[in-house]
Amino acid sequence: MLRREPASAEVSLGASGLDKPIVPTEVPLFIRFEREMEDKFRPLMLQELQRKVDELADSQRGHRPTCTECDQPMQYKDETPLSWLTRFGKVTAKATLFLCKPCETKRRPVLEMLGVEPGQVSGSLARLLALLGVIVPYELAAQLALMFYGVQVNAMTVWRSVQRLGEAVEQYTNALSEYHANINNDDPPPLDAPDAIVLGVDGCALGMQVRENRRRRKTAEEKLGPLPEVEDGHFREVKTGVLLLPAERVTPSPGRRSVLRRVLVTYLGNADTIFDRLWAKLQELRWLGPNTVVVIVGDGAEWIWNRATMFPRRCEILDFWHAIECAWKFARLQHGEGSKIADKWTHRIAKKLRDGKIEQVIAHLNTLSGTTEKAQEKLEDLIRYYTNNQHRMHYKEYLRLGYGIGSGAVESAHKQVVHARLRQAGMRWSVAGAQRLLALRLLLLNGEWAFLDRLRMVSLAKHAA
Ligand SMILES: [Zn+2]
Fold it and tell me: How many helices (H) and strands (E) does the chain have?
């Protein structure tokens, strides 16, 4: 609370005794300067852009293209002006239409040369809109587009940009995965590959759209009822795979570890595909040499260990925190919620595990018996969990080798890929819609956004959402 100077007689106070805050009427000078520049030069940029388009159209005047189908010279048809939206506003081209009478092929060479589609947004604007749509919901992205780029678009335009570009990335990723799935296509393993790489996978369920068609309001007043509960089968699992080099792990402050680089892979659907994609990525990165150890950190889910066998030189690690969590569950039931004994006991187990004494821990657990039926059940679960994963719990050794013992980096990466954008309140997705958005999010988070320039937007008509 600010201490107020005693009010002078002239100042009238509100009922609370506070002055109304005074807002300066003037916007600071430099802010006005900057905005002035934008207002002044934006129209000039549009003019210049239009001039370049006109110049190209003029240079093509008189040229008669040949038909792409039958190689015959084409006939002049018309010259309707067509426009599209760019970063600086709407641009129009007098793009001559040519027709091949025998086969009815139509061409507009000027638009072909420019690589633009009338009535759509330009490629550069589509990429900027997609960038926003990848970070925030489409409605908000449209608002940001106006603030950031000065371009007025609706949420649907942002959505379409994400779909068309995301589909291009998705198709490329699939093709790359298929290519590397064929062992004959792999290059000879790199001899300078890292000694060890860490691979982790995490997953979560995503709510899928229940209805075939979008719900539409008949009138503005008619309110939509609450969304139906998402039933079983209307969830799909998104899986995120993370690859990192343990050698690159740094300790910015004691007890805190972070990684400089991590490479992400994602897939909405089955487990085999995420591993195919991880394999393809490892080949592209040239990280998998003849002596590279693949360190696989998992929470005990069988589908991960089953597929880990594709790496002959591997080290399987049961995530340390999952191992401790399981001990906690028993301790709470045995000694009561919040009891000091439970706390001490679990810490002792954690210390023993970290010291590489898994056999001792299991032997100790076998001497115990549950105080209640529930506690006994949990104790048996715990013994089974540790016994089954014993060979994945040599934590002292993993720490010595610098492999790490937790899947924290994997979990946080997964949250960044999925939760931060796709798991907000009330969100429901179509499979294609979510997959395309994920494909773009991955490019951004992997620092590969510029790669998008090398892909062609996919037409949605052929790949309906
Ligand atoms: Zn033809």
Answer: 15, 12
Contacts of 452 (CB under 8 A, 6+ apart): 127, 130, 165, 168, 169, 440, 443
How many C-beta neighbours within 10 Å does residue 227 have?
Answer: 13
Mean pLDDT for the stretch of residues 242-269: 79
Q: Encoding tokens for residue 83?
A: 């426009």
Tokens of 465: 């959402």
- Cα(148) to ligand 1 centroid in Å equals 45
- Indicate whether 465 pLDDT > 60: no
DSSP 8-state code for residue 461: T
Sort strands 196-207 and 106-107 into parallel, antiparallel or unpaired. unpaired
Expressed in angstroms and rounded, the spacing between residue 284 Cα and the centre of ligand 1 is 42
Beta bridge partners of 83: 92
Residue with tokens 């990723």: 173
**Residue 355 has which token pair?**
């010291």
Closest to 333 in 3D by CA, of 320, 325, 324, 342: 342
Residue 117: DSSP 8-state: -
Ligand 1 centroid to residue 333 C-alpha, Å: 79
Please tell me the distance between residue 73's alpha carbon and the centre of ligand 1 in angstroms. 8
Q: How far apart are CA 246 and CA 250, in angstroms?
A: 9
Contact (Cβ atoms closer than 8 angstroms) between residue 129 and residue 163: no
Q: What pLDDT is recorded for position 334?
A: 93
Q: Residue 445's pLDDT band (boundaries 50, 70, 90)?
A: very high
From the number of C-beta atoms within 10 Å of its C-beta (0-12, 13-18, 19+), residue 92 rates as middle
